[in-house]
Amino acid sequence: MILLRSVFCPAWRRMGLNLIKPIVRNQTTTTTKTTTTTTATKSIFSNIQKSLTKNVLVFEYKDRILPVIGLIGLVQFIAFNFIAYWSFHLFGTVTAKEENLTTHSSLLERAATIIPTNKFRYTTNIIIVLLSGAIFAASIIYPARCIRRIYLLKDGSSVGIVTYALWPSARKFIVPLSDVSVHTALKGVGIFQKLHIRDRWLSHLVNSREGTFYNKSLYETIIALKRF
């Protein structure tokens, strides 16, 4: 009956139109506002990228230890391997027989009667070499992951990254923004924010606590986006 009255009766028809108009107007206004905001945001970002006349330093992290940590790792690797070589020959001269002990026997000779000498010398050397090698590898890989500077290049579509790596190819390189992805927000991330680069095994580290953001808005709105 209500539908029939609204169709045939002009008064009921006007009443229905008056009820529907605010709903349609609100939906149109909300859609228009969302579209306008999105368009404005995109235009702001594109304008920022187009207005760059030179490379912009966005982030910088200065550290005194990282440039020499690889050298420290190399020195300890050589030192521990020398110790391993020396200990291998030292334990080889020990006679692991209890009847050969005298009152003047050293603590090393007495310990050799309890622990099998050959097994102990090989095990000790393997552990020393592996441990020093792992420390050396970490002292090379960690500085290569730590980002020293991030530049937004003047083309607006790529970034220049400088790390503390020992070898030149990993120390300075240029990456398109489409190959850069950050999965976590800068706020509340802790000390390091991981910056993923396409086709690289390990992520790079942005020290958000001790580093300096010269242009934080550019970093958060253009560089540090989740792209893959």
Structure report:
The protein contains 7 helices and 8 strands; from the N terminus they run ααβαααββαβββββα. The radius of gyration is 34 Å and the shape is rod-shaped. Helix 1 crosses helix 2 (about 10-50) and helix 3 (about 65-90) runs antiparallel to helix 5 (about 115-145). The protein has about 230 residues and is of the alpha+beta class. Strands 4-3-2-1-8 form a 5-stranded antiparallel β-sheet. The longest helix has about 40 residues, at about 10-50. The model is unreliable at about 1-10 and about 20-45 (pLDDT under 50). It has helices at about 1-10, 10-50, 65-90, 105-110, 115-145, 170, 215-225; strands at about 55-60, 145-150, 160-165, 170-175, 180, 190-195, 205, 210-215.
